[in-house]
Design goal:
The protein is of the alpha+beta class and 400 residues long. It contains 10 helices and 10 strands. The chain folds into 2 domains: 205 residues, no CATH class; 151 residues, Oxidoreductase, molybdopterin-binding domain (Sulfite Oxidase, Chain A, domain 2), CATH 3.90.420. The strands form 2 sheets. It has a 5-stranded mixed β-sheet with strand order 2-1-10-5-6.
Length: 400
């Protein structure tokens, strides 16, 4: 392209698009259609800041949870501290729930922007609005399906884990672009100068400060009504928590019962232990397992839905069982269940866990024989693992 002296090239993304006719400006498109004092830059900026904090914590702990359940080749799940997953998943679910009132308030504050005139001023503005659509749609999808998962209400026709994970990346990308494009606006809205330029109006109606306070109280109330499923001392206040410590047989909540899993332990139960290729499998009866050295550990059970509870488990160490087929635990081990179907009927135990003193094939819970709903006759319990990976109704251990 040849440019004449004294001329400058214009940014094509900033060139104005054709303006729609004024006759289209009806209802909410009319100038001055939104007069509420709550549709302000300052309120939107503060809500955006609070959402940014909660979303960041929720997304980081959510990614951690996904990598723990589906570890990529470069990631090794640590066995210690044994309570780490309990904390990270508790933070994940708590911040996700806290974000619901914040997001609703934010959408209320900025929804007049949906009716901006013209709808697209230039290509850059149109791109920003497209990214905003992805951000809002992805955020609503994340929080709505997350809440449904907490209550195990799978009304949608897709696998929650996959959609939740990939839509999180869409939100992360859209949020990064949106923050980059609005950083100057947010900085202005959060500054003290904004109070001078746009002071609180005098008169009736809710003030901006009152609106922010009410939103904060609503977010805190949601947290208080649910966090008891993770923080035991607050369980009495958490009236909306679907599961709390102390619920369920033997004082421990249950996600999937033996009946729901379709498991049935018949006479002559045996655990099959499969070693390296060429070795003869070892068959262990329940009496054989009870005759091996027994160990007792105190470990939490933590589910992806956010609830967790500490418990005392008794059983044989996984490494002692692996030693029967000549394995030192350095290879990954697959632990399989009597459960016939399901995404989590088996799990992989890496060497760091299989060699750990706290990793058991448990026969007892809280001083009693395992209840059927907790995995009788045998279940896996290991430190710092999600509940879905603590395989119940174990009937096979295989060295990979």
């Amino acid at each position: 392209m040849v440019r004449r002296a004294g001329t400058t090239l214009k940014d094509p993304t900033m060139m104005p698009l054709p303006v729609p006719p004024e006759a289209l400006r009806l209802g909410p498109l009319k100038e001055g259609a939104f007069t509420s004092r709550l549709h302000s830059e300052r309120v939107a900026s503060w809500l955006g800041l609070l959402l940014g904090v909660t979303f960041t914590l929720c997304m980081l702990t959510g990614l951690w949870s996904h990598f723990v359940q589906h570890p990529p080749s470069w990631f090794t799940v640590p066995a210690h501290p044994s309570w780490l997953y309990r904390v990270t998943q508790g933070v994940h679910v708590t911040t996700g729930l806290a974000a619901v009132p914040l997001l609703l308030a934010k959408l209320f504050t900025v929804y007049p922007k949906l009716f901006e005139w013209p709808p697209a001023k230039n290509l850059r503005h149109a791109t920003e609005r497209g990214v905003l659509l992805l951000l809002v749609g992805g955020s609503v999808l994340q929080l709505a399906t997350g809440v449904m998962n907490i209550f195990q209400w799978y009304a949608f026709g897709f696998f929650f884990t996959t959609v939740h994970y990939w839509s999180a990346w869409v939100v992360i990308g859209a949020l990064t672009v949106h923050v980059g494009s609005k950083i100057a606006v947010a900085r202005r809205g959060l500054s003290k100068q904004s109070l001078v330029d746009d002071p609180e109006p005098v008169g009736g109606g809710m003030s901006r400060r009152g609106f922010l306070t009410t939103t904060g109280v609503a977010s805190g109330a949601v947290v208080l009504a649910t966090v008891g499923q993770t923080v035991s001392p607050l369980s009495g206040l958490s009236v909306l928590a679907p599961r709390r410590p102390g619920d369920g047989p033997q004082g421990l909540p249950v996600n999937k019962t033996a009946r729901a899993a379709g498991t049935q332990v018949v006479e002559g139960y045996q655990l099959t232990v499969v070693g390296a290729s060429g070795r003869t499998p070892v068959m262990l009866t329940l009496a054989d397992l009870q005759g091996m050295p027994q160990h007792t550990v105190h470990l939490p059970i933590t589910c992806v839905e956010g609830w967790s509870a500490g418990a005392t488990w008794t059983g044989v160490r996984l490494r002692d069982v692996l030693a029967l087929v000549g394995s030192d635990g350095h290879r990954p081990t697959r632990v399989a269940s009597l459960q016939a179907r399901g995404h989590y009927r088996s799990s992989i135990v890496t060497s760091g866990h299989s060699r750990d003193d706290l990793t058991l094939l448990a026969l007892g819970l809280n001083g009693e024989q395992l209840h059927a709903d907790h995995g009788y006759p045998l279940r896996l319990i290991a430190p710092n693992r999600p509940g879905v990976m603590q395989t119940k109704w174990v009937n096979q251990v295989e060295v990979l």
